[in-house]
Amino acid sequence: MPVVSVINYKGGVGKTTLTANLGAELAFRGKNVLLIDLDPQASLTFSLVKPDYWKNDLAPNKTIKRWYDSLASGASLKLSSLIFEPPTMKRLMPRNRGSLHLIPSHLGLINVDLELATELGGGTLKQNKLKYLRVHRRLSEGLLEQDFEQYDVILIDCPPNFNVVTKTAIVASQYVLIPAKADYLSTMGIDFLIHSLNELVGSYNDYADLEDGGVEIEKIKPEILGVVFTMIQMYADRPIAALRQYMAQTSSLGVPVFTNHVRENKTLFAEAPREGVPVVMKPTAGTGKVIVGELEALVAEFAAKLGI
Ligand SMILES: Nc1ncnc2c1ncn2[C@@H]1O[C@H](COP(=O)(O)OP(=O)(O)O)[C@@H](O)[C@H]1O
Ligand SMILES: [Mg+2]
Question: Tens digit of pLDDT for each residue in 97-118?
Fold first, then answer.
């Protein structure tokens, strides 16, 4: 059950679109996939579930916010009790394939970050280090429930920041996937993100040497699976020159880069969330067919890297 965090500091780089398409195509290939929406903007949730359904059936008590809240108040809600199968995906997924499940997000998740941050302060140095470990391990411990063992892969759509909730995702992950645009600021952003990741892993592992009530805490070692370039403009079957220089520059940072990328197409990608169907699941012709083929190749590369 590999856990993969999909992360970038920047919003609007195609994280959610990539997560939805990876999940849907992997399920189509027979895998049991769980998506966790950790972004308070809840774009992944709204890409798979109609707003009315979310409001009436999920928002009151079936979102990840409820689980973080319950931990803070000492109640013990099971994380797996929030798993839900989006009706559109259930309907579209042919028999004898895999499944796509979701733990939905909530717009109020933004407050959870603040609450977790306040939990971190106010004690002796040793107490603070132990609090740091406990807070950052929350999601990782939640995922130890037996119900999660049925999944071939768990994908976490992270918010566009490096706050505590994002860190709980990284601590719970064996892999990190970085969707990015190929431009100047994004290339700088990747460098900065990797720096922050290393810092998190460094402090966490340093603190993990402290035993928590005699319980040994395992160190973390999330591996960067690679950068996936998104919204790529093509000319004569390859990315335009202005983008190629940034793609090359990213490789020269020493970060693994996926061979396949996501092509830009406003019409197809902008419409998909409204219909609740990721592009890769849509029957298309012409350019649409080319794009679906490219997404399939990207998912195959992802699956091969994960060994699933
Ligand atoms: N390959 C693409 N081509 C064109 N538009 C895209 C593409 N991927 C995503 N988009 C659009 O860009 C916007 C941001 O994408 P999204 O996946 O929500 O990014 P993020 O999760 O990083 O904020 C959305 O409106 C989405 O429909
Ligand atoms: Mg998003």
Answer: 999 999 999 999 999 999 999 9
